[in-house]
UniProtKB/TrEMBL annotation:
A Pfam match: NAD_synthase
One GO MF term attached to the UniProt entry: sulfurtransferase activity
Protein name: NAD/GMP synthase domain-containing protein
CDD domains on file: LarE-like
GO biological process: purine nucleotide metabolic process
Organism encoding this protein: candidate division MSBL1 archaeon SCGC-AAA259E19
Every NAD/GMP synthase domain range: 4-80
Amino acid sequence: MEYTEKEKKLKEIVEKYGSAVVAFSGGADSFLVASIASEVLGDEAVAVTARSPIYPSWDEEDAEKVSEETGIRHIFLDSQELKNENFAENPEDRCYYCKKELLESLDEIRKRLGYEKILDGTNSSDFGDYRPGLRALREFGEVVQSPLAEAQLEKEDVRKIAEKRGLPIADKPSSPCLASRIPYGDRITPEKVKRVRDAEEYLRSLGFRIVRVRDHGNIARLEVAQERIPDLLERRKEVAKNLKDLGYDYVSLDLEGYRTGSLNPE
């Protein structure tokens, strides 16, 4: 199926919902959904971005910026995941509690506006990964819909369609919440999350677009794209000093480079 046909199918799926609140993280998947919803549903669609210490600040900035640039109706909501003990204890199904709280907040907005559906950016590729948050989607039943998955679009399809539409973050790397940098079982605290955020913001300022700072207590384990490992090694003294200033005692480089879900259970 050509991308023009896939885009057409996606539009038809979103249009049938009638009205919708779109969970807009600032990433390429949810941006495509928000863009399509804005186009086919008009004022009957609103993109909503959660603000929280666990979300990267650059995603919030991207969500606001691209909404203004493209005319997508957009609002923020403040979420409180760190106050939820089920989440803060950091079990392996941590993402379930986070997603459930987000959907509950989005559902309140949906009801207040009188809209039909909540749309999220889950695509077909997501079903092959460890994603306990998908359980929360199922619990909401027909209220929550995943149009990308319904259209059988995989991650590469999303990027191709977004690029075709000229969306400004079509090639943006995935950016899960900062809690995903903390190994399961280690309590998630505001201090740990802030340290990770500050460390990654610093590394991004050096030009490392794809980067993860895995927080192992007093050790920071850095993951960057494999082709950028030599660049990081060239700046190892500077990087080590800055991360130690943030509170880490040791700074290590993962020689396998960045890979999705390196802290997920085997």
